[in-house]
Queue: 4 jobs
Job 1
Amino acid sequence: MAEADPLFPQRYLHTIHAAPECERLRRIYTDVFGGLVFHESYYPPEDRDAALLYVADHMIEVMSPRDTQDMGFMFARYVAKTGPGYHSISFRVASAEAAHERCRELGVLINTEGPGLIFLHPKSTGGIIMELTDHMMPNDPWDLPNWRRDWAVGRPQKPHALSHIVCAPRNPEAAVFFLTDVLSGQAHDPVEIEWPERATATRVDVADATLLVLDPADRENGALARFANGPNGGVYALAWKVADPEAAAAHFGNNHSGNVPGEPAPAGSGYTHAFMLDGARHWFVADPG
């Protein structure tokens, strides 16, 4: 059974958004996106602040160096090198130790490791920075018996669910292979898309999440190629289900907490609007909920 595989993911845990200002992002994700913060922390070994929150049914971990100028700490160096944006994705496994051993057996490279977690090297994942962990996140409402994934339905101008995670990794074929053959994901037939540029898109369902892996037609030029070949974690955008995209776009663009710049997506793209928040793209998908 796939569930007996130490690398079988129990759930998609979170997406990390790295940026210089944790408090600013925390406020925008709660006030503008309608998210709920359930844990905040400071990690002295990396001089790093973090906030764990849910936007609808998707956990985001906002991280920032407390002193962006102190290059003596790894996270400050990371943000200085890559700029703000999505850092990585994370899956929960039954045992990080067993997952680590299985990675060694398969020749999967480990980038960093810590108590109860491993970060896989993007050379082995096709270019996606990926964490496997057995951590139970502090105060995580998901783990409560009365948690409902649809708690955010009924707010037409804010996301009510995550549709999918858009990835533009350096090696799309290797990324799809890793998600399917190593993490037991299910791939769908590739489709051709024209936005954000001409590319082949492969949907892969892993655990309770859907990832859309983009393979640009031009791997040398264009926004997707520049992104894939740059210093990043391979996550290009989060696509959100929104009941009233026009009302949501107006709310995002003009509110009291922090305006998020955006523009309409082309007709026929499958999306209604595209926004950029501190290096992280957020796209709307029309869905009544």
Job 2
Amino acid sequence: LTASNLPQLDAGEEHDFFNKCEQLNYSPHEVYRCCQHNVAMGWPWYAMNLWQGTSDNGLAAWLYAASEVTAKVGTAGVETTIVAQTDYPFKGDVRLKVTPSKAVTFPLYLRVPEWAMDFKLKVNGKAVKIDAAAGAYVRIERRWTRGDTVSFEFGMEVSLTTWPRTGAVTVDRGPLSYSVKIGERWKKHHSGEIWSKADRNKWPGWEVFPTTPWNYGLVIDDLKKAFKVVTKKGALADQPWSLENAPIEIKAKAKQIAKWKLGKDKT
């Protein structure tokens, strides 16, 4: 998350950063760049902004995750709970269960991400035809009663983003970008005056080095046939971002490029 597009995280000071110090290896001390600590703030901010109230007394699903929200909606301010069930961002289907304390009319907005290839909507199990432009909101205004459900699905297809400076590409699927699966060797690292003041067993530093090749180029003749999406069966792990728990893998043909090696700045 904090050092994307790099094959290793080492303690060298020759990396292409403004400050010349240990910038890539994992460290609990101030020699490390602030990304390591700041990146975690994105998760609570994301959770805090899943749902938004609207100026017309409704609710908007602004971001998606398994969640529960309770708010006062409608002109009478009726307390209503909505439970969202989903494995987003790994899967594109979302199910909402609406439970108002009494029947109430209010608008429900659903954000359609810009990457969505299509959008399928059902209300109480019945398909609803609706114009759903990518990057816009779908508005559903109706009289909601206890037990109403809204189910929708975003079409997730593999796509490529091309970077003009290098001609390299990023493999995307839905809201996520994927990287080549690289084996990891973790090595404890301690250096500098700060380490002499800390308990190295409780507060270790780490370098991470690749144990498998990373210098591959994709072989793509037909984009639609170039990738195979493999979904692991079973419930989503509590920590789906780890290498061993990743619920989605994308398989593709690639060729190792022998001349592609780390540069002087280890990137």
Job 3
Amino acid sequence: MSVIISRALPDVRDGLKPVHRRILYVMDGLGLSHASPYKKSARIVGEVLGKYHPHGDTSVYDAMVRMAQDFSMRYVLVDGQGNFGSMD
């Protein structure tokens, strides 16, 4: 039950899972904002895996893509460049 509460369910305060929070923290640490140039997804995923999320890279990629899709979340948190999935 502890794993479900701490990892699988989004937090009540902001609606983010820990993997989403880790991605946003790393992106802030890399200086990524709305006005900065784009960086490759592999750079962000590598930083997250190396420092905060020692599991597979697929979950980090999936979480980052989900944050970039306007049909997955209410507010888009990541501005994805290129193919981040479409509804089609």
Job 4
Amino acid sequence: TLQATALVHEAWLRLGADAQGRWQNRRHFFGAAAEAMRRILVDHARKRQTEKRGGGAAKIEWVDSVLQVESTPAQLLAVHEALEE
């Protein structure tokens, strides 16, 4: 879970902590801060969703030699037809 303090700090970093003079007024600043926080929350949710769906799973390299099957075309067609039924 993303804590409120962490959210505010991340938003401050994304807004550019040294760019205090670029805001036209308080409303402009708070609008930009709200937008930054919304984007941070969306990014956080997407990251968690990716992890939930196997984003951290180990990748397996495809090796053709391990998966080679000795069969004739007739045998492959027979398997295909059996699976289609």
